[in-house]
Amino acid sequence: MPNTKVVFRSGQSAVTSEPDTVPVTVPPSAIGRWQTRFNDGTRRARCELCPRRCVLKPGQRGFCFVRSNHDGVIVSDTYGRSSGFAVDPVEKKPLNHFHPGSSVLSFGTAGCNSGCRFCQNWDISKARDFDKLGVEASPEKIAQVAAARGIDSVAFTYNDPIVFAEYAIDTAEACRAQGIHPIAVTAGYMSAEARPAFYAAMDAANIDLKGFTEDFYWKVTGTHLQDVLDTIDYAVNEARTPDGNHVWVELTTLLIPGLNDDDAQLHAECTWIRERLGSDIPLHFSAFHPAWKMQDIPPTPHKTLTRAREIALNEGLHYVYTGNVHDRVGDTTYCPNPQCHATLIERDWYRIITDRLSGTDGRCPECGASIAGRW
């Protein structure tokens, strides 16, 4: 009998008519929506959510630790449970061209499908128990709380929302019903099958482009560069919201001294962005600080971020920022017209000093140039 490839939808039961199926007592919304079930009597199932495609026996967990096989059906074990909530400015995601100065309700769960040795949130993403998940919240409750507090957006962050995609998508739909923007902060290590539903649920995303060589990606993150490039390409060029708009995407590269900060990698990355995505995609270069399994590498020098920003601008990217350091120039949005270069949004860390774009048609007040973003 051939294997059964299943795409479960929210509210659909996991029970099928196959003779070797055992009913599972989990909420239908927590059932993995991307999986293949093996009809060989073993009750094995393959998770199709990310490129790892973990094949799991009953009781086994995937690489992410938070998706497991329950009697032949893969389940998202953290659905409806959070490691905590915080209200942040949208610039902290970072998103500099998406409703500047607005507030974001941020939350995550536990687990991750990447293996980054430098993980800044390792206590959450690498958790191997669910003690961190002390807050239970339904998608509808999250949306209601955000709306009641006048919060503009809800961000799925801290750990990668890819591993709790079902929860993120359902929460995004509940938020949209309340007029709240869903935002994903992700490393982009997602399967082609899962991308359409995930990105259709998001109004904006910040995607990590952690480096620009396969060697770096495999040795330092345990993932593959091409899979991430394919996700970024899809999110920018193909993904659409239900009303037909492009999903707004910004990229972040954490520069780690000696590993991904050389000129060749930076030139190659910026060239790919310009040629494949266009010059208007904002790019954030962020400073590394020693964490988890990379305590022996020093923090990123400020001058490295400045050099990377200059390379990106010289490669033709219009909006390039620095992060995790105090750099007013690197925080600020300027008009990309070389004859103008007017200051449009001046920032000091996450604080906005001057904003000449929000509430406008997104044009430079000095020269009339169109400024990419959601204003």
From TrEMBL:
Keyword rRNA-binding: no
GO MF annotation, one: 4 iron, 4 sulfur cluster binding
InterPro entries linked to this entry: Aldolase_TIM (IPR013785), AmmeMemoSam_rS (IPR027596), Organic_radical-activating (IPR034457), Pyrv-formate_lyase-activ_prd (IPR016431), rSAM (IPR007197), rSAM_sf (IPR058240)
Binding site for [4Fe-4S] cluster: 112, 116, 119
Radical SAM core domain span: 97-324
CDD domains documented for this protein: Radical_SAM (cd01335)
Domain of life: Bacteria
Co-factor: note: Binds 1 [4Fe-4S] cluster. The cluster is coordinated with 3 cysteines and an exchangeable S-adenosyl-L-methionine.
Cofactor: [4Fe-4S] cluster
Biased composition (Polar residues): 10-19
PROSITE patterns reported for this sequence: RADICAL_SAM (PS51918)
Name the UniProt record assigns to this protein: Pyruvate formate-lyase activating enzyme
UniProt source species: Bifidobacterium saguini DSM 23967
Lineage: Bacteria, Bacillati, Actinomycetota, Actinomycetes, Bifidobacteriales
